[in-house]
Design goal:
- The complex is a heterodimer of chains A (about 300) and B (about 280).
- The longest helix of chain A is centred in the last third of the chain and has 36 residues.
- With about 300 residues, chain A is mainly alpha-helical.
- Helix content of chain A is about 80%, strand content about 0%.
- Chain B is mainly alpha-helical and about 280 residues long.
- Chain B has 2 domains: about 55 residues; about 210 residues, MetI-like (MetI-like fold), CATH 1.10.3720.10.
- Chain B contains 11 helices and no strands.
- The chains are: A mainly alpha (about 300), B mainly alpha (about 280).
- The interface between A and B is large, with 62 and 61 residues.
Chain lengths: ~300, ~280
């Protein structure tokens, strides 16, 4: 709680800068609208206003500054507008019993969450299995590890449209599958690296001790390596789930998906409704925060029960 | 069918060879360390080629590596133009601006313990967010050309580098700082001679994360509008017009660019943080 005041200060500064930026960002559009409404402006036409800086425009037309904070299609909405839009598309609809309506962000968030969790499960399984193979087999270590690193330097977004086309050509109509593959691709790497580190974390003396107990390789894995890797696992799971969410949203962005938070961003862009984009972005942020917090909680409980809490 | 059989035999043979090499007495040598993963990669390509040819997969679904290589060779001018637009203009400019801004911000913030405590959790949180989503907003602010792509990259790389640098600047322990004080070193001297060098491994960690983010940002932003060139533009139109071999050629360019970018950062890291335990051989 020592950090509460500094964090709140930083957040307040961010909100302040955001509010302050709204007027200069929106003033040109606001003036164009006011002109259509027949207001007296300095300079009078849009062409002349092109030559003048936004600051001068704000000084000469102080009346219209107020309008920049209440526009239907702002270039930069105020935090309040975004919050209102978010409320209208989530809690308000839920209260009216339309939580799963196609216009509700709860519905789209649920679609995104499903793909994220499938991708997370797939990526974690791949990462853990890969790590076990790498730790126990030198061939796998030498041949797989460099390619695992290279696979992450390949921008997945380049592959995303391909994966979706491929899966639809193979007859997979369910949109969840390609999105889950993309998020698994982003998610497996942190898990793999963390688990390799974790499985190798027991000291030689500890491994030797198990050998003196005549423990088999499998017993050593189960009783020493696996428990020792748990803190590493949770740390990388937190990175992994954030990456999985990014993967799902990336999978929804360029591919003409119709449901999911990424699709809301895409549709908001195509229909010129910036408020919808911002609301979907904030919803994605909340989802990311919630998932990471849940894993953090699970980490604390597990480590406490294992007697390893820091 | 013979293609398929050949590919499978090649796979088995390469795997046995790799196993022999990895468990041989020379497994520590540089040649084997490079040869084993290369052989693994070649096996994958042969297997891909064999599967596509052996099973008669339509080139619209998955072109064979040889077909991709042909397209690559015959359309180098397009690929180079896209590479310049997306990587050199969009990604690298954004990376340079974003990392410089993050680095300077980190040093400024670091002077205030209050700000550091407030900004680290916020920055960590923002670094975990799906920031790619702001791409359409920035494209509508900065126009279709590379400036908007660079802007997306700036926002995407800023927070990972900021968080890592701030963390790195806190890495020195009290003993080291006390030593600097006994030398009567001022703030700048302590920063330049002790704290910045100590922070470098962290800074490079952030830079390495940022290299991949930079390419992702530059390519995603192109899906939301771009001039008629650029890797993201070519990929999205290529998928639409079913010229899948060109798409794969672009993916290869993206892979090479990403790996090279990452490799260069790792190389600079080796040269600058040679003293760090993780760099010792």
């Amino acid at each position: 709680m020592r950090n509460a005041l500094p964090i709140l200060t930083v957040l307040a500064v961010i909100l302040g800068v955001w509010y302050a930026a709204v007027a200069p960002m929106n003033i040109r559009v606001a003036l164009d609208q006011a002109q259509r409404g027949g207001a007296e402006l300095v300079p009078a036409t849009a062409l002349e206003r092109q030559e003048v800086s936004v600051w001068a425009l704000m000084l000469r037309n102080p009346v219209q500054i107020g309008e920049t904070y209440a526009m239907d299609r702002p270039r930069l909405p105020t935090p309040g507008q975004v919050a209102t839009e978010l409320w209208n598309t989530t809690a308000d609809m839920a209260l009216n019993g339309r939580a799963m309506s196609k216009r509700s962000l709860i519905y789209h968030g649920w679609i995104t969450l499903q793909s994220t969790l499938w991708g997370f499960a797939l990526g974690t399984a791949l990462g853990v299995l890969g790590a076990v193979a790498i730790v126990y087999s030198r061939v796998v270590d030498m041949s797989l590890m460099p390619w695992a690193i290279i696979s992450q330097t390949v921008p997945i977004v380049a592959l995303a449209p391909m994966i979706i086309v491929l899966s639809s050509q193979l007859g997979i109509t369910d949109r969840t599958v390609p999105k889950a593959i993309i998020s698994a691709y982003l998610c497996y790497f942190p898990v793999l690296v963390g688990m390799v580190k974790g499985l190798r974390s027991p000291a030689h003396a500890q491994l030797d001790l198990l050998k003196t107990y005549n423990a088999s390789g499998f017993q050593a894995f189960l009783k020493l390596r696996l428990p020792a890797s748990v803190p590493y696992l949770f740390t990388s799971l937190k990175v992994g789930i954030a990456a999985a969410l990014v993967g799902t949203i990336v999978g929804e962005l360029p591919t003409g998906a119709i449901s999911g938070l990424g699709a809301r961003i895409l549709i908001g862009d195509q229909f010129g409704t910036p408020l919808a984009i911002w609301a979907a972005l904030v919803a994605a942020a909340i989802l990311a925060g919630a998932l990471v917090t849940l894993l953090d909680l699970a980490q604390r409980i597990t480590l406490k029960r294992m007697g390893m809490q820091a | 069918m013979s293609w398929l059989v050949f590919a499978l035999i090649f796979w088995a043979g390469a795997w046995v060879l790799n196993a022999r090499l990895a468990n041989s007495a020379w497994h520590g040598t540089r040649a084997v360390r490079i040869l084993v993963p290369v052989l693994f990669g070649v096996t994958l390509i042969v297997l891909w080629e064999g599967l596509v040819r052996g099973l008669g997969v339509s080139p619209v679904i998955l072109p064979a590596p040889s077909a991709v290589a042909q397209t690559f060779a015959s359309s180098t001018d397009i690929l180079w133009e896209d590479f310049r637009q997306t990587v050199l203009k969009g990604a690298l400019t954004g990376f340079a601006i974003g990392s410089t801004a993050a680095f300077v911000t980190a040093i400024l913030i670091d002077r205030s313990a209050f700000l550091t405590r407030g900004l680290l959790p916020v920055g960590n949180f923002v670094a975990a967010l799906p920031i790619v989503g702001i791409a359409p907003i920035l494209v509508s602010w900065f126009g279709f050309d590379w400036q908007s792509k660079a802007a997306v990259v700036v926002v995407m790389v800023f927070f990972p580098i900021l968080v890592n640098t701030v963390q790195g600047l806190r890495e020195t322990d009290a003993m080291q700082r006390d030593l600097m004080r006994t030398y009567a070193a001022g703030y700048m001297q302590t920063l330049l001679k002790l704290r910045l060098p100590a922070a470098m491994p962290f800074v490079f960690n952030g830079l390495k994360i940022a290299t991949t983010l930079a390419l992702i940002g530059a390519i995603v932003a192109e899906y939301f509008g771009s001039p008629t060139r650029g890797m993201g533009f070519r990929i999205s139109t290529g998928v639409g017009s079913l010229s899948i071999d060109l798409v794969w050629a672009e993916i290869i360019v993206a892979a090479i660019a990403g790996t090279a970018f990452y490799g260069i950062v790792v190389w600079i890291e080796r040269a600058m943080t040679f003293w760090h335990p993780s760099q010792r051989r």
